[in-house]
Amino acid sequence: MAELTQTPKAAGKSLTDYLKTPWAVIAVILALVALLDPGNWVNVVSFALRALAHTGQYILFAVLLLAYLKATGAETMVARAFEGRETRMIFLAALFGGLAPFCSCEVIPFIAGLLALGAPLSAVMAFWLSSPLIDPPTLLITAGALGWPFAVGKAVAAVALGLFGGFAVRFAMRRGAFARPLRRYESAGCCGCGPKQNEKPVWTFWQVPERRARFRAEFVQNALFLLKWMAFAYVLEALLVSYVPADLIARAVGGEGVVPIVIAAFVGMPAYLNSYVAPPLLAGLMEQGMSAGAAMSFMIAGAVSSIPAMAAVWSLVKPRVFAAYLGLGISGAIAAGILFQML
Fold it and tell me: Which parts pass through the membrane (predicted)?
């Protein structure tokens, strides 16, 4: 049974243990901002709180669903639903990812829930890579700022990147890689008290005391895990938005040829540049000489991930999965940029 928490439960924690938590790092960061730039402290805190509140609805839904499925025993049905249908699920995940209005941070609660329920990493990776890239509002905003060819190119690249990532992970899994993607695999309840593979779900779980206890344990444990890491991610995002101007980052990837496209991917991924701000900014930079391929590479890499999203993902999955996620995102962004430049 998968669990999202990273550390096993213990009888108590020392002060040193608490100082190593994301909450302590958040406190240190905010204290430094208050000390070094007191006039911007309110802006940093309010930005992080607004972003966390917006994502909180997705966290709540994902955690409630996960706790319900585990309390009822229905996660075995989810696992069986993916058996023998991996290829179809990769295609569906890549296509539906283009309709999901999630950024690279908002998609993480759903990725956590899918992996915890035993969904194949290949299908999860397809959704993971395609979802932050495009959605209907972003498509219209991109078309308005950069034209329909660019918008359609980005939409095609989103689905193609999802398929590329899904089948690449599927190929690796066939050879024994990524067998257990989450960092910890423990039940929130007692050892051996989870549902058996052939056990029928109990949909009215609240009528059974043991299942009510399991629901509470799963909800609290997973909610606290996601909350602390998403809070940390959005504090980092607030720092990036406040102290690293987006136009300064984008100006570093000007020029023609393949090299600027590659640089654009590596600069765009750690930067924070959401899909609503990026199109008009890149439109201005393209008028000043930035190539269309570099703009596409920068936009895709920046949407797939960022430093805030990387921090949350690192806490969730094992290093090999983390490296695959970044590698697929970078390589896909470069390939999309080169192809778009050629076409």
Answer: 21-41, 47-69, 90-119, 139-172, 219-236, 248-273, 294-316, 322-340
Q: Give the whole-angstrom CA distance, residue 117 versus residue 112.
A: 9
**In this predicted model, what pLDDT tens digit does every residue of 76-97 receive, in sequence order?**
665 555 556 788 888 888 888 7
Q: What is the 3-state secondary structure (H, E, C) of 127-149?
A: HHHHCCCCCHHHHHHHHHHHCHH
**Residue whose C-alpha is closest to residue 124's, from 157, 78, 155:** 78
- pTM listed for this prediction: 0.70
Any domain includes 99: yes
> 265-312: per-residue pLDDT in tens?
888 787 766 666 677 677 777 776 778 888 899 889 888 877 777 877
Residue 263: name the closest of 308, 310, 301 by CA.
301
| In-domain check, residue 328 | yes
In sequence order, the 6+-apart residues with CB closer than 8 A to the CB of 27 are none
In a domain, 152, yes or no: yes
Q: How far is CA 170 from the centre of its chain?
A: 19
Contacts by 109-114 with C-beta closer than 8 Å and gap 24+?
Answer: 109/55, 109/58, 109/59, 109/61, 109/62, 109/63, 109/226, 109/230, 110/58, 110/62, 111/316, 112/4, 112/62, 112/66, 112/222, 112/226, 112/316, 113/62, 113/63, 113/65, 113/66
Dist. CA 100–CA 110, nearest whole Å = 11
**Is 60 a member of any domain?**
yes
Token digits of residue 119: 């969904």
Total number of domains in the chain = 1
What SS3 state is found at 119?
A: coil
pLDDT in the model for residue 108: 80
pLDDT one-digit tens code per residue, 45-81:
998 898 888 878 877 887 888 788 888 877 666 555 5
Q: Are 294 and 261 in contact (CB under 8 A)?
A: yes
Residue 185 has pLDDT above 60, yes or no: no
Helices 307-316 and 108-116 pack at an angle, to 10 degrees, of 20
Alpha-carbon gap, residue 118 to 208, rounded angstroms: 24
Q: Which single residue is written with the structure tokens 């690192």?
A: 314
Residue 316 CA to residue 4 CA, distance in Å, equals 7
304, 306, 280, 335: which is closest to 142 by C-alpha? Answer: 280
